[in-house]
Structures are given as C-alpha cells and as structure tokens.
Amino acid sequence: MREFSRTFSPGTSELFWCEKCMLPLLSANCSICNSIGSRVPISPPGDVRLCSRGGRELLRELFEENYGYAHFLDGRMILLNKIAGIDRRDQVILDGSHIATVWFDITASCHKLDLETAGASLLSGHAKKNIVVCHDSLLKGHIKGKWLARDLIISPSADDLNEGENVVLKIGKFAGVGVVRQRADGSKSIRIKDVTQRDFQLGDHKSTLQETILANESHLKGLEKTALGEIKDYLSRSRLPVNVSFSGGKDSLASLILGRKVLTRIEVLFINTGLEFPETVEYVREFCRSQKLRLHEIKADGNSSENSLAEGSFFANVQNFGPPAKDFRWCCKTNKLGPMTSFLEQQYPKGCVTIEGRRIYESFNRSTIKAVERNPYVPTQTTLAPIRNWRALEVMLYIYWNKMEPNPLYEEDFERIGCWLCPASLQSEFAHLKKSHPKLHSQWTRHLRAWAEANHLEDRYIDWGFWRWKRHPPKMIEIAADNKIDLQARGRESKEIALHAVRGRSPCGLEYSIEATLTAPQNHPFQGVAGALSMLGQVKYAEDLGAVVIKTDYGRATAFANGHIMITAGKSEAEELLRRVSETILRVQMCTRCRICMKNCDQGAITVNDTITIDEERCNHCGKCAEGCIAADQAAKIFRRLSKKGAAP
Ligand code: SF4
Ligand code: SF4
Ligand SMILES: [Zn+2]
C-alpha cells in the first residue's frame, strides 16, 4: 500500500478479457476456451489485484451513496489497479472495463469515486441520484471538456447538485460523465468529462475465482516453471542452508510455496517487529504449525515471547526521534535490521540463502530487484527474488491455485501487510485502521498528538497524515498552503543539550545513513542555522518545511528545525558529517557575536550581526572561521561529550 505520487513502469503489464468465458486473463490466451482475449487498457505500473471483500463493500457504499444503485457489483469479480496519486487511487475494473477510479481525499478523510464513461453507460439506465438528462442536441460538435449549457439540461438543475460530484449524463443513446463545479457567483455548472455510446452491458455470467484460476492456468504454470528453475539453478551451486523470509504477506507466502516445492523441510524466518498486526502474528504462527514448517520468530526485543517490549522500545524511541517518516525511517534499523542481522549471524554463521517475496511493482525503490543479490547488511546472506516480476493478481491466483489461504487481513481491504503504524502507509489505511483496530489507532494518535503539540504543529498535521514525511512532496505542500497549515516543526525550547542517533544501512534504502536528533537551546531561528550550514557545503533551504539540505563532496545531510538530522554517506564520512553539522548548529546557537571569525575569514564570506551569515558565493568551506571561535570550541567539546555518552561510536 505504498504511496507513489509519480508514475513508474517497472515492466510491461498487460491485462486481457476473455469475451467468451467472461474472465480476466493475465496473458492473451484463455486456458479454458483457447481464444485470445481482448486487451484491457490499464495505467502503469499495472500491479492489478483482486478486490477484497472489504474493497467490494467500500465500492458498494460509494455507488449506493452517489448513484443510489450498486447491485450490479454483487457477485462479480472486481479488479483494482493502483495508479499514481498522493494517497489511495485505484482504477476499478469490472467485466474488462475501467468503470471508475476510487480515491481517498485526505482533507475530507473519506473515499471518493471518479466515474469513467463505461461506468456512466452502466449506470445511465439505473442510477437514482446524480443523473442529469440532457437534450440530444448536446451531441453536435466537440463537447469533451466543455461546460454544459443550462438550456440543454432537461433535469435536474445543476444548482441541485453538489460541488465536485461526478454525475451521469444521459443523452439519448449516449452516456457521459460530468463534474459539478461552483462558480464565483455561487451558481453551479457541469463540465463534461467525456461521452460514449450507451453500449456497455454486464454479461449474464458472473465469473468466479475458481474459473479465473482455470482460465489463467497455463500462465500460472509458466510463472511457476521460471521461478522454480531460478531457485533450483542457484541452489544447485550452493551448499549453504536455505530459508524463506515470511512476513505474513501474500508475496512472501507465494515464495514460501515455491521454496517448499524445492525443499520440503525449508526453514521460515519471520521478523516480529513488535508492531505487526495481531492477526499477522497469529496467521504466521498458525500457518507454520499447520504446514509443519520450522518457524524462527525473530523478535525486535530479543527473547520476549510477547510484543510489548519491542513496542515499548519503539515508543521510547519516538520520544527521542519523533515519529518515523517515509524519509526518516529510524524504525527500520531499530525494529528490523538489528534483530535480523544478529539472528542471521548467530543462526547461520557460515551464511545462508534466503528466498524472498520482493516485487518490482511494489515501489520505485524495488523496481531494480535482481534475481540473486547479496544482502548489503549481512554479506553472508544471499537473497533470491523468484517472484520479482509477478503482479499482485498473479501472486494471489498462484496462492489460491495452490489451495493456500492468504492472511485474512487482505479480505479486509488491507493491500500491504506490514507494521500497523508504518509511515509508508497511505492515509486511507490509517483511516481504515481507525475502524478495524481502534485501540491501536488511538494509541498511535496519542503519541503523534503529543509530539505535534511539543513541536507547535496543529491537529491537521496529524489527522491529514503530514507527519508521514519530513520533507513533504509538492502535492502535500500545496494542500497545506491551500488550507493554511504550517508545516514547520519547532522543537520544544530546551536548555539541555542531547544527541540521539541510530546508524547503519537501512533495509528500506541501501545506503549507510545516520538518523539523529540534536536537542539544543533555540537562541536563534532556524533560518540562521540553515544559513551557517553553507560553511560545510552547498545548501538548499526550504523555509516552509523548516529543512535544509547540505551537499558536500563526501555526503549529504538534511537538518530540520525540530532537531532531526539525517546523514547519507560512507560510514566514516557520515560520522564526520554528523560531527560537523552538529557542531555548526551548536555554534550558531552559542555564538557570542565577538566577530573573531570575520577577521579570520580571508574570503570575506562571514558576517555576524544578530546571527552568523555566510556568503555562499565566497565561502570555500576552509573552516578558518572556527579558529579562535569560542562557540565553535564549546560546540566541539559538547559533541565529544555527547559522543562518549553513546550517541556517536
Ligand atoms: S567567532 Fe564564533 S562566537 Fe565569535 S562571532 Fe564568530 S561565530 Fe560567533
Ligand atoms: S573562513 Fe570564510 S571561507 Fe572559510 S569556511 Fe569560514 S566563512 Fe567560509
Ligand atoms: Zn475463455
């Protein structure tokens, strides 16, 4: 369920529809009737999936609420295709046609429907609401994108409709989609999105899952053959122990099924981060018990049999670091990487081969997965990714074809099974969590609100999901600006200086990085800090985000107004950069305005008035301005003291 606001095409994803059997096909040929299906146009990346029971209920509610008609969905196979957007956005495919797009409006905290012409054609004979009957004369000339003239509307008046709603236009033998828009004078108009002939009808036959598997059997056999071939080929050249990484999700289940076909007594590794859904933990344990598989449950808290300790240490870290964010994932290190590396080193000292379920369609980061890779954090572990090219629908059909049951959370409309508070989740998923797991949701919301309050951030920063980023994407910045939401986190005034840091390679991104929080007195605004950091390298300051990015020849750092620091560089370079960034921040806050630095700088690059200002054009990053600077001296001493306390190695 990861969000991707840009479109990416990791591979060619095609979907077909067998007109004869009325079934979706993953490749052109139907295994039941042998005919060639017609191509279903879908937008990239094309990770088509089955719509769950929960998803079906959601669509039913939306069609009922918007058009007073939803029976047509009953008993029909619905496919969803995730497309680019700031939050959930899925193309809804029914009987081989894209009938609508369901999306989550973070400002209204609810799902909405954008109708497509096939959907309008389907609804035009049945809708009881939001249907506008128009004169046939509307069809003269080009009408797509035009405003619907009032005298061409037979009923009802646009003023009786709600702003933003998608309405069905009924125009004789044609149907179209219109969007209601409010004008400056308060009146409403309808903009015509598109029009089509009213020829899309649902077939009498309602396809079942079993039929869909049969229609795709040779395709599934082909996928399996390739994947098993890859695994066998690698294992024939290795003597290392083999295991499967099982998260309780569908992808790792598919690779577990494949792994067992090669090695019946394969071992299963499950990292219990302490933040798993209770259903997932139960599912993994029960699945392995019933399948007689040896399960290694690797816990973030070491040996405890319960989740409370790992959970506890996570929340203690939230006090130090703030909530994890998509671009500030300290939790991957504390709750995943740490426990996993220690387990692998102990259990498989000579190394191991791990079969994983990672897929290229999941996210940009995963679009370059190779068949065989060396784990960058545990070089003795080799990972195989036999289903890397599979799409979600292929994974699910493969699981059902093998008569296995996936995690029950999928039926509840959870698309990805991971930590329940993962910042990579969509806001629609947090809204769903509120209903499905209210206790977990309120527990996390309490922590988020306390953190927001300490950072002078308003409730909408939490309720609309802004907390999930440190540096917000343009669309989120736009929403914040439109709704006058201040995105700048201002840390609590603190006299005590402290540094907390987590370091290592992140399992969610491959580079070595340090995530730290520096608590320091706030004697000068962050803008001054941002300016002074250009002593270290090329600086880009985003005032609205309270963030500054510093690029140096040996690494990259981002410092935030609330004290967070993120460093990406080689291991020793990252430590050096953390030292220099921390010392510069402290120096700015402790500057006595003695102006010794101005004398020492032979480039004339530094001036000191209220605070330090660096002329980026002139500064050559030589560091001479720190010589004789009492604040720089103090800062260096403090950093050494903090390092000894364990914040630095
Ligand atoms: S020498 Fe140091 S303390 Fe003095 S003005 Fe410059 S930065 Fe501030
Ligand atoms: S002495 Fe001048 S040129 Fe050198 S780092 Fe300081 S401000 Fe930049
Ligand atoms: Zn067929």
Features:
single chain; 649 residues; alpha+beta; Rossmann fold; TATA-Binding Protein; six-stranded mixed beta sheet; six-stranded antiparallel beta sheet; 32% helix; 23% strand; disordered N terminus; binds iron/sulfur cluster; binds zinc ion
Description:
The chain is α+β, with helices and mostly antiparallel strands and 649 residues long. Among the domains are: 216-307 and 332-412, Rossmann fold, CATH 3.40.50; 498-647, TATA-Binding Protein (2-Layer Sandwich). It has 17 helices and 27 strands. A six-stranded mixed β-sheet has the order 16-15-14-17-19-18. Strand 23 and strand 24 form a beta hairpin. The protein binds iron/sulfur cluster (2 copies) and zinc ion. One iron/sulfur cluster binds at residues 535, 600-601, 603, 605-606, 614, 619-625.
Estimate percent helicity: 25-40%
What is the strand arrangement across the widest sheet? 16-15-14-17-19-18
Average pLDDT, rounded to a whole number, is 89
Could you tell me how far the N terminus lies from the C terminus, measured between alpha carbons in angstroms? 36 Å
Largest sheet: 6 strands, mixed
Radius of gyration: 28 Å
CATH first level of the domain at 216-307 and 332-412: Alpha Beta
Write the layout of secondary structure elements.
Layout lengths: L14 E4 L4 E3 L12 E3 L7 E3 L2 H15 L10 E5 L6 E6 L2 E9 L4 E6 L1 H7 L7 E4 L18 E3 L10 E6 L2 E9 L5 E10 L11 H7 L1 H19 L6 E4 L4 H13 L4 E6 L5 H13 L3 E6 L8 H14 L8 H18 L4 E4 L16 E3 L6 E4 L7 H10 L25 H10 L1 H17 L4 H5 L10 H9 L15 E9 L2 E11 L6 H7 L5 E5 L4 E6 L2 E6 L3 E6 L1 H20 L5 H5 L5 E3 L3 E3 L15 H18 L2
Parallel strand pairs: 9-11, 14-15, 14-17, 15-16, 17-19
Antiparallel strand pairs: 1-2, 1-3, 4-5, 5-6, 6-7, 7-8, 9-10, 11-12, 12-13, 18-19, 20-21, 21-25, 22-23, 23-24, 24-25, 26-27
Helix pairs in contact: 3-9, 4-5, 5-9, 7-8, 10-11, 15-17
Bound molecules: iron/sulfur cluster (SF4) (2 copies) and zinc ion (ZN).
